[in-house]
Known about the structure:
Blueprint (H helix, E strand, L loop, with lengths): L12 H4 L26 H4 L13 H6 L6 H12 L7 H8 L6 H5 L6 H15 L4 H14 L3 H16 L2 H8 L7 H8 L15 E2 L7 E6 L4 H4 L1 H13 L2 E4 L9 H5 L3 H18 L3 E4 L2 H7 L2 H4 L7 H10 E3 H6 L13 E4 L3 H4 L6 H8 L5 E3 L14 H4 L1 H18 L3 E4 L2 H14 L4 E4 H9 L16
Parallel strand pairs: 2-3, 2-4, 4-5, 6-7, 6-8, 8-9
Antiparallel strand pairs: 1-3
Helix pairs in contact: 13-25, 23-24
Amino acid sequence: xxxxxxxxxDVSDATMTAGTAEVSTTAIIGQPIGFIGDDVPSxxxxxxxxxxxxxxxxxxxxxxxxxxxxxPRGRLHLMRDVAEKKRPLSEDVVKHLDLCVxxxxxxxxxxxxxxxxxxxxxxRAQITRQRHLSxxxxxxxxxxxxxxxxxxxxxxxxxxxxxLYQRLGIQTLVRKLGILRLFPPLxxxxxxxxxxxxxxxxxxxxxxxxxxxxxxxxVGFLTGCIMPLAFGETQEATVRxxxxxxxxxxxxxxxxxxxALHAHFGEREKAKELARRNIDVFEKANVDFIVSDAAGxxxxxxxxxxxxxTDPIYAERAERLAHKVRDVTEFLAGLPIARPQRAINARxxxxxxxxLAHAQKIKKAPRDLLNAIPGLEFxxxxxxxxxxxxxxxxxxxxxxxxxxxxxxxxxxxxxxxxDIVVSANPGCMMQxxxxxxRAGSKARLVHITQLLDEAYGDxxxxxxxxxxxxxx
Length: 472
């Protein structure tokens, strides 16, 4: 089914790229021919597509734009042409690859098993390697990917600055006066999705939390880069739920960002550096499983084997670690969990993160967990696994397209009349959260572990019985 109402907006090709002019559509010197060096998309994978077209209506950009080059099939054709040196790695090719939201919904319906996400990541790495970056883009990448995200302490200091920005009323004043209109669109898009910052997640000095009752598993917990700052209460809930289910939770010191943002933005070498650091840290922790409560992070950790496949020192170790990784919903649903006793009398719907439903093919687990909570009335949302427009930083670099996808998601949420919207990824929660706030919705948005935590009666906040939004 096509998207009709959102597509009536006046979103021209020029407008589509306006939000990315500073960071995405710089010209390529000499328009190089072919892919070079390491991380080249494999010929076998590029040739796997049989042109059946089943991916077309699953692709967010094709549904909105109706352009073949902005579909998975069309982008694969462009990649093949570049790989076979039939066309240069031109600005036009880069534009079409850049517009992909990386939701991997096409993989869920592909009868040939095309690894589209793998191919896109390698193509974007080639773009990053070969293109001439503007000064503005080099500065953005240097600040974010080199100086901030890989360094937890710097990131936390930055988080405190943002928290003060909110708590001192500066954010309210800035938005009221429209000050951000005086700055590049990129900054305004970043500020618009900033959630209200509450408690930051801080591990105990021992870096481990004992189980409630007999110990069943030693579980390593990847905190990630965004979750501890933007969703600290969620991570507290995740740890309590794991502990309640017989897990000794180990939170190793020295862990860093999983590398997903780097890999999806073509910075594969930097993603490899982060992967090696995490492998070193979690190997020393000697855990049975490695769990993340961010679907994007658990998906990335599972790709470490492929990411470091050519590394003579880390290839085998990366594969071993990847086999231990579980998304928290996947891990809990496979235990089975201790049944919650506290009823939560509310209508609940599930917004499925793309990197849970499509990248990891996990769909049953979150539903099983929700159905285990007494009192819940679970309402299936229409197209619950369609992208909300977050896409890592897609809503920052392509806000116009992202907002069309968000409006579609908000309409589907509204149709459920749900009191609570459940998700399992920080990007989705920031995107949908700001959309619900903008729409004046009273629906409360939570991570699935928060709802379980409340049902166990371990939460610091009361279980929602009236659908009111948490103020914490």
